[in-house]
Amino acid sequence: MVQKYQSPVRVYKHPFELIMAAYERRFPTCPLIPMFVASDTVNEYKSEDEAIHVIERRCKLDIDAPRLLKKIAGVDYVYFVQKNSLNRRERTLHIEAYNETFSNRVIINEHCSYTVHPDNEDWTCFEQSASLDIKSFFGFESTVEKIAMKQYTSNIKKGKEIIEYYLKQMEEEGITFVPRWTPPVACKSESSTCHPRRPVSPAINIPESATKEGLSNKEILNTSSSPSEPTAGTPDDKLDADYIKRYLGDLTPMQESCLIRLRQWLQETHKGKIPKDEHILRFLRARDFNIDKAREILCQSLTWRKQHQVDYILDTWNPPQVLQDYYAGGWHHHDKDGRPLYVLRLGQMDTKGLVRALGEEALLRYVLSINEEGLRRCEENTKVFGRPISSWTCLVDLEGLNMRHLWRPGVKALLRIIEVVEANYPETLGRLLILRAPRVFPVLWTLVSPFIDDNTRKKFLIYAGNDYQGPGGLLDYIDKEIIPDFLGGECMCEVPEGGLVPKSLYRTAEELENEDIKLWTETIYQSASVFKGAPHEVLIQIVDASSVITWDFDVCKGDIVFNIFHSKRAPQPPKKDSLGAHSITSPGGNNVQLIDKVWQLGRDYSMVESPLICKEGESVQGSHVTRWPGFYILQWKFHSMPACATTNLPRVDDVLASLQVSSHKCKVMYYTEVIGSEDFRGSMTSLESSHSGFSQLSAATTSSSQSHSSSMISR
User: Fold this and answer.
1) Helix axes 408-424, 351-358, angle to 10 degrees
2) Which residues of the chain have pLDDT under 70?
3) Helix or strand holding residue 709 (H, E)
4) pLDDT tens across 138-170, in order?
5) Which domains are present in the chain?
């Protein structure tokens, strides 16, 4: 397995030239890096105006590895080749390094860059990326990987310290300024006589193959037709180390790398829909920084949030009055660590009455709004306390808990809530204080504990009776001044006292069932299943030409092909689903086919857009400006993996990909809308239709005057 590393942007608040002077002091050897024994210059090139300096060194490293492993490998030292390309004109340094020793067994590549900060030319940015691929190593592959990762991460931590050490050394020597490069004086005036020379190329990396073939440095430079790609400093889409420490906390180099890599993947596949860095980090922590596992649950959560419009729940949903009066929970200041504190008087709550009056879905939605408010409060407290706060503390008072709280539908609702919260709000609970647990509590705990993640369960502190008042109790976690009055404190707590819900507010099972459906179908998105040989199709009738059909869909599972067709006559409506004016109105994960099997493409209907292949996890937004009135059909079709062109056997990648799509089934979540041309301005972010909810959710797209359409995939 290839191990990868990507650093955040590290900022030195010193000019580029001063940083370069400090950096050069690391050679030929550096006492601050014991493993760096020596280095020899094997190739060097300087341009005539000294703007370009390319140097190649062979570095000798004494790896801290078991003596037995070194003996088996037959080496005492490991050699690396490092190529530095300095461009004083552009003020950039690009560093490429690779291993020379065991290069047929282990492949190590590293790229580093020093560049000028984009917002302050007197600051310098540093970025670093690397990859490790161990093909084979005498049966010790796992051991070598661990040693290599340990050595590399320890050197990453020292990197900034070393530069700062040499900066301080230079300051003691009286060196606090290094002038910038300027063109030679003789060449500044047009009247001056200068020796003709070739244009100076920017710094490049010396190809390994060219070095082996014995080309000189000048020949290598002259054969290059393009400069190295510069690495940006700290643009908005990159994280710098100071930001991570201030807002996200102390992370190890590998944890930083996981965060940056997952964030980059989201930027490529979910443009315009990137969750906040704190949220991404929570999912990584929930899966011990395993990127693949964290990405899977995060994508599932993002789809869930979008489908149920959870991002807007605080602004668009008002809790019923019954909840405001009888739900005995609320926010109450913060704990000693600055975490928001939520107080829940579960023992005083009539869970049966709330479920009978509101239903399971209303309770779930209310809990979601509490979690969303918790995320908002964490952000506020991070700013107030000046340190990262990403979770909250929950204080649960069980005084009054009895067997009526174990009412089966109530327990079922509780388990459902725990399941949803665990899946979509991982690592948000910093601590759970359970106070005054009665004898019936072990029964409830036995029911709910299997549904709680092990990491979450470790954060539970349970106190029976008045134990919370003694040593190791409440005062260890909450300041005395804010302990609620009902727990013997002096602070008035505005959390509702709960009580029995009047039976006059109870609703029938039929009313509750209809209400539950209404709550979760108030989403503008619809779900559909796509099978092999059974596409899902949506009919849109257009009366006025030049109307704009817009779409926004996520591929939740499998790969699909998206098509748009036009027909002058309406297809026969499906038997099990009714057709609305603009789309199929069935809210479930349905599958509807509209194009009759006897229809022929080109005769009965035509294709108005090129087929668009969409991969699992992609978000797609687009629009099509209609040319003719009639009936337009949006189609999502199962995408079959093509076999290799030169053989009848499928490729390995195709087989593996097909195994991921069980039973040849795909899932999409989509939204479509028709907008008049006068309300459309060629961009999904500039839709001015007063009834359009899509404009808040979609990313920008561009429209093509030739095809009268636009589509954009967030790849």
Assistant:
1) 80
2) 1, 186-237, 271-273, 517-524, 574-589, 641-664, 677-715
3) strand 709-714
4) 888 888 888 888 878 877 878 878 999 999 999
5) 2-173 (3.30.530.20), 241-308 (1.10.8.20), 313-504 (3.40.525.10), 525-571+591-640+663-679 (2.60.120.680)
